[in-house]
Amino acid sequence: MAEQMAVSDTLHRYVREVSLREASVLTDLRTFTAELPAGSALQVSAEEGQLLALLVRLTGAVNVLEIGTFTGYSTLCMASALPPGGRLTTLDITERWPAIGADYWRRAEVEDVIDLRIGDASDSLAGLREEHGPDHFDLVFIDADKTNYLRYYEKSLEILRPGGLVVVDNTLFFGRVVDPTAQDADTVAIREFNAFLYKDERVDISLLPMADGITLARKRPV
Questions:
Q1: Which of 97, 86, 197, 70 is nearest to 78 (CA)?
Q2: Is the dihedral of CA 17, 75, 44, 169 positive or negative?
Q3: How many CA atoms lie within 13 A of 145 on its CB side?
Q4: How far, in Å, CA of 217 to CA of 205, rounded?
Q5: 94-150 tens-digit pLDDT
């Protein structure tokens, strides 16, 4: 069996040619975001956005939670995949970047299923726990400040139904997780998060060496 192969630019283009189905509104938002300072680094790739939409459909998710909105590309991907009656709640610390995405959400006619909440994510998560109780969400996507990943994960598990899925972005963090000289707070936090998750018997896990590292964690039924 072949090991993980390196993905060249040529192979990456081929993958996009034969598998990427990106709606024009998504292309427009991704292109606009790429022109912002650090925009390309901060938004999910088109392939990851398509994977998120597929995971929403595969899990039959009706209630989706996103921690970290930025300009709302991943928000739009997941909201577009929701079934009738579905709802996506997305959390961000500022209105500045989600305000960009809102225009594209309207174009895609999904703005009515998106609940944007601005403020400290820990406070917002506590509010959602009080509002909905435990086991409310079917899928959670975490893509926010790295130093708080473990906190967000723990609070997400409280409001995720048994059998629900947590998707965590940037878990390889530009490859810095294997660089012993990388001791910045973000890299250390991702290393510690990965080590914690590996030992967490509450979930089934898989770390995908795709994009910047994507971890899937399924909450085991009690």
A1: 86
A2: negative
A3: 11
A4: 4
A5: 999 999 999 999 999 999 999 999 999 999 999 999 999 999 999 999 999 999 999
